Amino acid sequence: MGAGEGDEFNNYLTIAHYYATRSACMGHPSLERQSVKISISLLRYSDVIPADKAFYEAGEAARKIGWNSIAFVCLNHLMDIFEAIEEGVGEVDNSDFQDTDIPTNILIPSETCLSEAQHEEIREWVLSVSMDQTVDQTLPLDERKMFESSLISHDGRQYEPCVVTGYPVIRNKVEFGNSNKVANKDDWNKLIMAAKVQHIAECEDVLKFIAAWCGGTGNTGFTFQ
């Protein structure tokens, strides 16, 4: 396998891992925020994942927990994608995602994966929020003055993604063996609690995969029985 093929394989493996982790987190209140973060992080791969699917899932997940700024930007962009599909246009305005690691060269699908009812619900919500002056209609920035899920910063620094959520690991990291994989400590601890205290089998499976993928179980003293 050549270097390019290896990078492509790792990219697909990472996407599959985040989808599996999100599936394990969904439906469990203690992991709700982790599930939403994963959906937002997956926008980083919207040049691989169908763009309408990626932005719909991120926007809807954010909307359900009241992260309305992210939800609005994602779902408003989804409306642009809908329009591009209807008009047969090959690109959309990506200015909302400047200075992020969300790709701008996304492939516009020939048809949407969403139903007409979903399309109409999104349209009504976006129109409603667009007239709500209490909602900031831009992506929220973190302490780096960057979009919170972005792995890059203004000074060109590249942050490693959390193996649980895909969000950048800025501090309080968990490291795994000799790999370059890391996790945000809070997200990692919540996943461990779900697996070992709540006995969520899917979370136990995710931890086992991370141990195999990363060459260890993290510097937290956690071991598998």
Give a concise summary.
With 225 residues, this protein is mostly helical. It has helices spanning 3-25, 32-41, 51-64, 68-87, 116-130, 185-196, 201-214; strands spanning 173-175, 182-184.
Give structural notes:
The chain is mainly α and 225 residues long. Helix content is 48%, strand content 3%. The protein has helices at 3-25, 32-41, 51-64, 68-87, 116-130, 185-196, 201-214, and strands spanning 173-175, 182-184. Strands 1-2 form a two-stranded antiparallel sheet. A hairpin with a 6-residue loop joins strand 1 and strand 2 (182-184). Helix 1 (3-25) runs antiparallel to helix 2 (32-41) and helix 4 packs across helix 5 (116-130). The chain is globular.
Which helices and strands occur, and which strands form pairs?
Blueprint: H1 3-25, H2 32-41, H3 51-64, H4 68-87, H5 116-130, E1 173-175, E2 182-184, H6 185-196, H7 201-214
Antiparallel strand pairs: 1-2
Helix pairs in contact: 1-2, 1-7, 2-3, 3-4, 4-5, 6-7
